[in-house]
Design goal:
471 residues, alpha+beta, Lipocalin, Rossmann fold, nine-stranded antiparallel beta sheet, eight-stranded mixed beta sheet, 13 helices, 19 strands, 25% strand, globular
């Protein structure tokens, strides 16, 4: 389930070559590099960039950026030498070739048949909107960067924020929603997890946040991950905190898909997790949620009640076909046939309301993750969570509609006998817990507020209140 829809990212499986033989340009010129690239029609330029850095395991690596498209930390799947003096950063759907020339990189952006030159110069940071809640040093707390080993050898890059008091604070592991999220959870200039960590630390609660595997400073393959990998990574973070012997209670706070991961870790490792916070969490099956989301998507794009009623039988048959057809080409063929069998006016409705841009795109639906997601039902894990739980959703959440999902989580917890549950639907907050007018996704970038203070304070109060005895 997505925190923010990713509609256009196509990925290819590429071999990962050992970087030692060609890492010098990355090690010698770390930092942010950016330039302006002319598009093929020569009528528009696009800011493009690369960040060169050292990952949590000490290896030299990079990520790509397209600031004009609000795309940062685009994961690189492979780094390879080309000739004697060039390095290629391969993201799968596109690649950037870097050649060092005196004091800058002469780069070439490769996507499809296009080969577009761009001169990259060093910049302090990539441009992004300035948001008033973004924390800035000096801080009244301590921050430390960590490298956390996960179960399969992946090394997670993380930041631990520790308040100056109390001596043994409670600590929260923040777990991001779906998509290639860094420890900051950046979107439209909003640093969601940085803002939440800053608020919690000022309230006496320690925080650990980490880059997803294959993203930013974390090693591993982002595109090849499963929910089990993400659960292993969150549990690795819990284990790392437990070994430090400096914290009282250890909790998990997951946003969107991160809420489901938190439930799984708490259910499977009850001895390790003392409390859980669900932020915009899912309380139903993936199949049920997709139907709710697609109906809301159509309404958000202008569909009236009668049109939604006409669209939804097709949407249901679409996902039923995904569940009953093998991955790849067989599924694409079956879904195209399903679409071709619609009346022309229904095909027009789907096009008018952009219903075929994400999970209703045959290419996206052909991926193995979708049937797994449709079959997933987080209530199975929630029913096994015995520790105290805080459930928060926003009344204007269009990705994870609040009433149905809060009821699902609370009901599952109750069915398992958990009596230590608090739940609230916070008025006028969207999926990202911003104060909103409509909750539509086109509002995210327009709102200056990163997180509503009332939502952050609920999390802080709950986290502080857990347990009085030290570990």
């Amino acid at each position: 389930m997505t925190s923010f829809p990713l509609r256009c990212l196509a990925v290819l499986a590429l071999a990962l070559l050992h970087p030692a033989a060609f890492a010098d340009p990355l090690r010698e010129h770390p930092g942010h590099w950016m330039g302006e690239m002319k598009l093929p029609d020569n009528r528009k330029v696009l800011k493009m960039g690369a960040e060169l850095f050292t990952r949590a395991d000490g290896s030299a690596w990079a990520s790509l950026a397209s600031p004009d498209q609000d795309a940062y930390d685009i994961p690189v799947k492979a780094v390879r030498a080309e000739g004697n003096d060039a390095v290629v950063l391969d993201a799968g759907f596109a690649a950037m070739k870097l050649t060092w020339v005196q004091d800058h990189f002469q780069a070439e952006w490769r996507q499809g048949a296009n080969r577009l030159p761009v001169e990259l110069r060093r910049v302090d940071a990539f441009p992004m909107p300035v948001r008033p809640q973004t924390p800035h040093a000096p801080f009244p707390y301590h921050e430390e960067n960590l490298a956390i080993p996960s179960r399969d050898g992946v090394m997670l890059g993380a930041t631990l924020t520790v308040p100056r008091a109390p001596a043994h604070p409670n600590v929260v592991v923040l777990i991001a929603g779906s998509g290639p999220q860094t420890r900051h959870v950046d979107m439209f200039g909003h640093h969601m997890f940085d803002v939440l960590a800053d608020h919690l630390a000022r309230q006496g609660v320690a925080v650990l946040r980490y880059d997803k595997r294959g993203i930013a400073r974390s090693t591993g393959d982002y595109h090849g991950h499963t929910l089990t990998h993400l659960e292993d990574d969150a549990y690795a973070a819990v284990q790392a905190l437990s070994k430090r012997k400096q914290f009282n209670r250890i909790g998990l706070a997951g946003h969107s898909e991160g809420s489901s991961i938190a439930a799984a870790v708490a259910a499977h490792h009850p001895e390790a997790v003392d409390f859980v916070v669900s932020l915009a969490g899912v309380g139903m099956s993936g199949f049920e949620l997709e139907l709710l989301q697609d109906a809301q998507w159509a309404r958000d794009h202008g569909a009236g009640p009668d049109e939604v009623a006409r669209l939804m039988p097709y949407v249901r048959r679409y996902y039923e076909t995904v569940l009953t057809t093998p991955d790849g080409e067989p599924r694409i063929a079956a879904l195209k046939a399903l679409h071709a069998g619609l009346a022309p006016e229904d095909q027009a409705l789907i096009a008018t309301y952009h219903m075929n841009e994400y999970t209703l795109s045959p290419g996206m639906a052909a991926q193995p993750f979708l049937p797994v997601s449709l079959k997933t039902d987080t209530r199975k894990d929630w029913s096994k969570v015995a520790c105290p739980v805080l459930v928060l959703n926003g009344s204007l959440d269009h990705q994870v509609p609040a009433e149905e999902n809060v009821a699902g989580i609370v009901g599952a917890l109750a069915s398992g006998g958990n009596a230590h549950v608090e739940s609230t639907i916070l008025p006028s907050l969207n999926h990202s817990f911003q104060t909103a007018q409509t909750g539509k996704e086109d509002e995210y970038a327009k709102i200056d507020e990163t997180l509503a203070p009332a939502a952050m304070q609920r999390v802080a109060d709950f986290a502080r209140a857990q347990g009085a005895s030290a570990r």
